From TrEMBL:
One of its GO terms (molecular function) is lyase activity. This is Enoyl-CoA hydratase/isomerase family protein. The keyword Lyase applies. Belongs to the enoyl-CoA hydratase/isomerase family. It comes from the Bacteria. PROSITE patterns: ENOYL_COA_HYDRATASE. It holds the Pfam family ECH_1. Keywords: Lyase. GO terms for biological process: fatty acid beta-oxidation. Gene3D superfamilies: 2-enoyl-CoA Hydratase, Chain A, domain 1, Lyase 2-enoyl-coa Hydratase, Chain A, domain 2.
Length: 249
């Protein structure tokens, strides 16, 4: 039940894979997600990350077959959510490299949480979104709920959690969760083109933009805001504009 990490030039592909379970996240997969994103964060050559699913689904939720092992004790349940799940989500959320979500098919529960941590979300017309865990008899963990509510909007989060609502891609686009909705057959190509466009731009500027946006969300100051002034990317971008040529970053 691996999460597969592959790098092709400046773009990394993270594939959520749990054959026969529509990419449902196991405890081991959450740990793999954290370790893999922590490694990518340190890769200067990586300029964009595409997160996708396998077998026609992005991620259908958690691997419920594991749940009886730990969900019925408060201590082990705490460890699962605060260490395994939050460890994976935090690694995606706090990654300074731009992250594109390529969403096809089911994006439920854990899938909603992972997608909510991505910067740009591109979905196929048949994709479905929700977190119907009320049907399983438990709430969403606090930090996970905060991530979903921030990305999808509080009213959408309430609808998903309280009503077990499942929404389609066009509705999620109208609610500003998705950046783009395309025919299913075109989603992978559009995600790749998006990653390529990002990869051609200034990578350190992208990382600084992500840090700034995180700081602003949490109400923190940005003391490093102008430290890039003497940097090579800054000089190259300005020089290329003046010389009427394409910058090389």
């Amino acid at each position: 039940m691996p999460i597969v990490f592959e790098q092709q030039g400046s773009i990394a592909f993270v594939t959520i894979s749990n054959p026969g379970k529509l990419g449902a996240m196991s405890r081991a997969m959450w740990r793999q997600l954290a370790a893999g994103f922590d490694r990518l964060q340190r890769e200067d050559a990586c300029r964009c990350i595409v997160v996708r699913g396998e077998g026609g689904a992005f991620c259908a939720g958690g691997d419920i077959a594991e749940y009886p092992e730990f969900r019925f004790d408060a201590r082990t349940l705490h460890d699962f959510h605060e260490q395994d799940v939050w460890g994976g989500l935090r690694a995606v959320l706090y990654c300074d490299i731009p992250v594109v979500a390529q969403i096809e098919g089911a994006c439920m529960g854990a899938g909603m949480e992972i997608a909510s941590c991505c910067d740009i979300r591109i979905a196929g017309e048949s994709a479905k979104f929700g977190a119907p865990i009320a049907k399983l008899g438990f709430p969403m963990a606090p930090r996970e709920a905060q991530v979903v509510a921030r990305a999808a909007g509080e009213q959408t989060a309430r609808e998903m959690l309280l009503e077990a609502a499942v929404l389609d891609a066009n509705e999620m686009k109208a609610r500003r969760f998705l950046n783009r909705v395309l025919p299913d057959a075109k989603v992978a190509d559009e995600a790749l083109r998006t990653a390529q466009r990002i990869s051609e731009l200034a990578p350190q500027a992208a990382r600084l933009n992500k840090r700034t946006l995180r700081a602003l969300q949490s109400g923190k100051a940005v003391p490093y805001a102008y430290d890039y002034a003497p940097g090579a990317e800054h000089r190259e971008g300005i020089a290329a504009f003046i010389e009427k040529r394409k910058p090389v970053f």
